[in-house]
Specification:
- β2 and β3 (about 80-85) form a beta hairpin.
- It contains 9 helices and 6 strands.
- It has one domain: Arc Repressor Mutant, subunit A.
- The protein has helices at about 10-25, 35-40, 55-65, 85-90, 95-105, 110-120, 130-140, 190-195, 200-235, and strands spanning about 30, 70-75, 80-85, 110, 145, 155-160.
- α1 crosses α5.
């Protein structure tokens, strides 16, 4: 299995948070929408910083569910639905490879030393040599790529390819503006937002339609499950 299309910036952050929390706080996993928003916007272990709204994260979850890399989980006694990732199965990776991808999703391009030091909180990697082997496997599968050093540095870097288009172009990844700090007219992102504004209503309509379709499917599954349980009860008690 594989992703059907590249992830956008919000989807990357949401997926990265789900993977991270699954490793680091298993007692609080799967995550509620509120916990997921907090995880996306936390100040530590994130780059760039974000201030996503609940609606923005919820819409990203809907798209990730269409990718089948995220699923909604209903647990007994829970008041709200929770969400879990299925990245191991969809991407066909092990824990160390998944931790590497999650760290790149959460922080962006990094040197090998930075990556190894940060990955250890999820799944330790014994040495830089061991990390190089893991990265080579992921690079062979077009999940990561090697990058040149930054100016003034000799350390090579690595970045993920989960947000790259098929033609090799980097998918637009505009960080969310901080509250009360809209980008100025001279900001490089200003022209992007103006160009994209005409598509907002269409995207919102598509997301609403997607949500309705998912709710309808889940309702149908619930009805079919109830009917099956009723038939099983009748079979077990033919005289009832």
């Amino acid at each position: 299995m594989a992703l059907t299309e590249p992830l956008d910036a919000v989807e990357e952050r949401v997926l990265g948070v789900l993977v991270e929390k699954g490793f680091t706080t298993p007692e609080g996993y799967p995550l509620s929408l509120n916990a997921l928003v907090s995880g996306c916007n936390q100040k530590s272990n994130r780059h760039p910083s974000a201030s996503y709204t609940e609606q923005t994260v919820h819409e990203a979850l809907l798209r990730l569910r269409m990718h089948r890399i995220v699923r909604e989980v209903h647990t007994a006694g829970a008041r709200v639905p929770k969400f879990a990732h299925a990245a191991r199965d969809v991407l066909e990776v092990d824990d160390q490879e998944l931790a590497i991808l999650a760290e790149l999703l959460l922080r962006g391009d990094q040197t090998h030393g930075e990556l190894r030091g940060r990955v250890k909180r999820m799944s330790p990697v014994d040495s830089l040599a061991a990390l190089a082997v893991l990265l080579s496997k992921l690079e062979d599968r077009a999940m990561v790529r090697s990058l040149p050093p930054l100016p003034g540095s000799r350390a090579g870097r690595v970045g993920h390819l989960l947000g790259i288009k098929g033609d090799g172009e980097v998918a637009p990844q505009a960080p969310a503006p901080l509250p009360d700090s809209p980008p100025s007219a001279k900001s490089p992102m200003a022209s992007f937002e103006v160009t994209s504004s005409s598509n907002d209503e269409t995207d919102r309509s598509k997301n609403n339609d997607l949500a309705n379709r998912l709710d309808s499917l889940e309702a149908n599954v619930t009805r079919l499950t109830q009917r099956l349980e009723a038939l099983e009860r009748r079979s077990d008690n033919p005289e009832a």
